[in-house]
Amino acid sequence: MTAVLARPPAAPRPQATSTRRPPLRVVGRTRHARRYIALMILVIVLAVFGGVSLNALAAEQSFAHRALVTEVDTLHLRLDELTVGVARLEAPDRIRRVAETRLGMVEAQQPAFLALEPARANSRVASRDPNAGG
Amino acid sequence: MTRRAVAGCREAMARSSSRRRLSLLLIAYLAVTLAMGWRLVSIQVVNAAEYRGLAVRQSQRQVTLPARRGRLYDRGGEPLAMSLAAATIYANPREVRRSQTTPMAIAQQLAPLLDRRAKDLAQLLAGDQTFVYLARQLPWRVGEQVTALRLPGLGVLEESRRVYPSDGLAAHVVGFAGVDGEGLAGLELGLDQILAGQPGALQLERAPGGLEISAAPRQVTPPVPGRDVVLTVDREIQSMTERVLGDAVASYGAEGGSAVVLDVATGQVLAMASAPTYDPERIGDSPVAARRNRVVTDIFEPGSVNKVITISAALEEEVVSVRERLRVPDTHRVGSKVFSDSHSHPTQRMTLAEIVAQSSNIGTIKIAQRLGPRRLHEYLARYGYGRETGVGFPGESAGLLPGVKGWWDTSLPTISIGQGVSASLLQVASVFTTIAAGGEQVQPSLVRGTVRPDGRLQAAAAAPRRRVVSAQTAGTLARMLVGVVDDEYGTCELCAVPGYAVGGKTGTAQKPSTTHRGYEPGAYVGSFVGFAPAEDPAVVVGVALDEPRPLYYGGLTAGPVFADIMGFVLNHRHVPPSDPKARSAAPVAGSAVTTAGSGGPSPLASPLVAGPRTTSPLPGWAQRPALPAWVHRPARR
Q: For chain A, which residues make up each domain, given as ranges?
């Protein structure tokens, strides 16, 4: 046999009052959701726009960089060509040829050396004998 | 009952058949799954590397980025070899065929730019290949002009073109590089590892059509440019040496000639010339023989030049003294062979200095006999015969020095006067550098250093030095060698350089026959190797002319070439002339040669033989005004 537990006595019901409840209504979430969605769309749009802009900027800089690299290469090329040109113009054989044929110059046969004597504050010039041949 | 049994049986059979089909289907499914699984494992695991490679090959393209080849400079920083961007024009004949332009029309537009016949170009364009070169290594401007034409099926590639801007100066030393930029001869070949650098790579993604995906990430391994190398060659001296040598070869109708200029203190090669020469930018126009650097690759029997080794060995081993007078007849028999001097003379009593000055074969042979084969061979080897000098030039010849065991009874006298042994002109010049440097041999070198990325010179390691003979022996011999030029009976009066004391030795050697045993009749190599100023040697110059005609004596043919080169080098390097008040007129006769500079007494300062010192100045050393380097000639009318 099981014992039947006695139910506790029910609490007394509150008595109806004459004061009216304030007019409450359930606030819908629609307005917040719209704002939130608008904000998100704005953020996304801005992010996409920013991303695209940055990419475009990067692409533009990349083109500028490539153009600069090409310009540097071209200038290097030009510098090399000029270096070769200068070296060809300065070639000893060419200078000699031009000096002899165009300018009518001849090679010196008797270079001279100046021997300074500081103690005496005078100088002595020694040169080759022009009759000694060469 | 029967009907019910039959129905039951049918039902059982149907159930059994359905199960079997299901089983079969399951088995087939499992088989397919296993096959697919195995295939997946095979692709993803077992053959993963192979498929990865295939994918890379299909979607990626690797472009080799060529490295800039290093430059070659002379010792003053003037470029001797450098690379320029060049245009290579190619065509895709199939694409040309698909276009509406005829090959001949394209060829006619290209011909003047490429300097080729339109007919030849049209033939190439009408072929069935997908790639054909039309012209390689043209100036870059031509490539730009071809691009501007916008011709179908044509393309321009950038390549590197090697140029030698000094009009082919030092062509034999510098060598040349091939169209693909690899060194083929000379130092271009010898220094290829330094000059070549390391090519880089550019990894590109490409679409199935082969087009590059520009937005895809690129992987770039930048090329490492080759290093620039500074040579020891002096452009001015090299030019003068080449010109004088070329003139001599032409005027004597010689087969060829070679000349080398060495700095005594450092062993550096200031000039190295061979004749005939060639233009490294037009290799095809020159015969192979003209491209040899005769100074290091050709060997010859040095003749009397070699006597300096015999004499220095005798002095070092003290088998003869400078005061001794040897009995020298004009002929001398050794074994079955009779040796003779270059001219007949009565039996004389000659000092060592006179034997050197007059280049007596018999006197030298008698000294060599006192020395013996073993010691002569030892000194030849010590001076560097029979092995490469270490100058670092590809194809350098070591010369021929037979071992003592292989010597015959006539080998000692033959070798002592410079026949029966072969050496390159650089080896012979190195012998004289050793004597001029006081008995210490410095390894000759052609590379002064490399250019660091910051533009500074990184000097090459100092050339190794080793003592060959004592300073006293070298000094004594050097004073004797002055007599070859200054002595009344010296063999090279024409080797004198006005204002300077010059020491050296002539050589007139027979050429071995290429067809039979013995020597070629009438074929000689005339040579002179010497140094100056004798009192403090700065430079060694060696000259050899191959079969000069009609004169063939070294003193008459190579001697004047030596004098011209030496005179120029001394002036160019601002070496002051020998002091006229101190310089002896006849050093062999027992006078002194003293230093002209302020570098202190040299080994040559002490008198060779004690005796009265004559201090006669050089004739004509009066006070004269200085002359400019170039004297203007009055204009002709």
A: 30-104
* Interchain proximity A83–B82, CB inside 8 Å: yes
How far is Cα B196 from Cα B310, in angstroms, rounded to an integer? 45
Nearest CA in chain B to A85: B165
Distance from CA of A121 to the nearest CA of B (A): 17
Q: Report the gap between the CA of B120 and the closest CA in chain A (Å).
A: 30
Average pLDDT over residues A15-36: 71
- Catalytic residue list contains B304: yes
**So what's the architecture of B58-71+171-230 in CATH?**
Alpha-Beta Complex (3.90)
- Please tell me if residue A116 touches chain B, with a CB cutoff of 8 Å: no
Q: What is the DSSP letter of B78?
A: -
The chain B residue lying nearest A103, using CA atoms, is: B632
Instruction: Work out the average pLDDT over B389-402.
Output: 93
Angle at A11 between CA A8 and CA A14, to 5 degrees: 170
Domains B58-71+171-230 and B235-605 share a fold: no
> B629 to chain A: which residues are within 8 Å by CB?
108, 111
Tell me the CATH architecture of domain B79-165: Alpha-Beta Complex (3.90)
Tell me the pLDDT tens digit for each residue of B431-463. Answer: 999 999 999 999 999 999 999 988 889 999 988
Q: How does pLDDT run across B256-315, given as a tens digit for each residue?
A: 999 999 999 999 999 999 999 999 988 888 898 899 999 999 999 999 999 999 999 999
pLDDT tens sequence across B539-552: 999 999 999 988 88
Report pLDDT for B2. Answer: 66
pTM of the model: 0.75
Angle, vertex CA A3, rays to CA A2 and CA A5, nearest 5: 135
Q: Judge whether residue B538 has pLDDT over 90.
A: yes
Between chain A and chain B, how many beta carbons pairs sit less than 8 Å apart? 118
Task: Identify any residues that bridge with B530 across adjacent strands, giving them in sequence order.
Answer: B504, B541
Whether B162 has a pLDDT exceeding 80, the answer reads yes
- Spell out which residues of chain B touch residue A113, defining contact as CB-CB under 8 Å: 576-577, 626
Partners of residue A128 in chain B, C-beta under 8 Å: 498-499, 577, 620
CA distances for B473 relative to B312, B432, B504, angstroms: 6, 13, 15
Q: DSSP of B160-188, one letter per residue?
A: EEEE-TTTTTTHHHH-EE-TTS-EEEHHH
Virtual torsion, Cα B433, B434, B436, B437, nearest 10 deg: 110
Kindly tell me if the per-residue pLDDT of B467 is higher than 60.
Answer: yes
CATH of B235-605, one of 3.40.50.2300, 3.40.710.10, 3.10.20.880, 3.30.1330.60: 3.40.710.10
Candidates B83, B258, B274, B304; catalytic one: B304
Name the residue in chain B with its Cα closest to that of A111.
B627
